[in-house]
Amino acid sequence: PRLRADVKSALRRVSIAIRPYDAGHDAEAFRACVVEHQDFHRALEPSWPEGKAIIDDYVAYLEMQCATHDGRVLVAEAGGEIVGFVCVVASTRGDSPDDPGAYAWVHDIFVRPEHRRRGVGTALMAEVEIFVRARGARELRLGVLDRNENARALYRGLGFRDYARVLTKPL
Predict the structure, then answer these.
(1) d(C-alpha 67, C-alpha 52), whole Å
(2) pLDDT digits over 80-119, tens only?
(3) Predicted confidence (pLDDT) per residue in 109-148, tens digit
(4) Distance from chain centroid for Cα 144
């Protein structure tokens, strides 16, 4: 599949490659990214657990989601180093009868802070769209912490709109 010209330009600018995750080669770097991703979110939302406390269970969860919902983990590589990843499933459903349609779901996307604002997230999301469209998905959803303003701006710039908002109140 062909990438849009702006995504190709972003890839050239940062010299990154987006490719499928290879557990035999990428496991250690991927796990480090997942821990860093979780800890980044924990800084925004302190109720989240530390990355190292859940890494085994969370990686197993992502693997199970990919296996049962036609998913894939893609990594962004620059200079031989994993600088980001995304986990997407091509087909899932909500559990409520008032939202019965199937949709693709981005479980996680993360770009290491030193590689942000260089087109890596945009390139990862472009590959996500190629992957899920090839599998017949007609809608792509993701969740984002409300306090993660930079990520929300990225997603809006990629054509996402607010769909639902979850409010929380500590008790």
Answers:
(1) 23
(2) 999 999 999 999 887 788 877 889 999 999 999 999 999 9
(3) 999 999 999 999 999 999 999 999 999 999 999 999 999 9
(4) 10
Side-chain-facing half-sphere of 9: CA atoms under 13 Å = 3
What's the confidence (pLDDT) of residue 1?
47
C-alpha to C-alpha distance for 114 and 133, rounded to whole angstroms = 30
Cα-Cα-Cα-Cα dihedral of 104, 163, 18, 72, to 10°?
-30
CB 91 within 8 A of CB 69: yes
Which among 41, 43, 120, 130 is positioned nearest to 82, based on CA atoms? 120
What is the Rg, in whole angstroms, of the alpha carbon atoms belonging to the chain? 16
DSSP state for residue 113 in the 8-state scheme: G
Predicted TM-score (pTM) of this structure: 0.87
Q: Strands 102-111, 140-142: parallel, antiparallel or unpaired by DSSP?
A: parallel
CA dist., res. 160 & res. 167, Å (int): 20
Q: What residues are paired with 140 via a beta bridge?
A: 104
Sequence-distant (≥ 6) Cβ neighbours of residue 153 within 8 angstroms: none
Report the chain's mean pLDDT, rounded to a whole number: 90
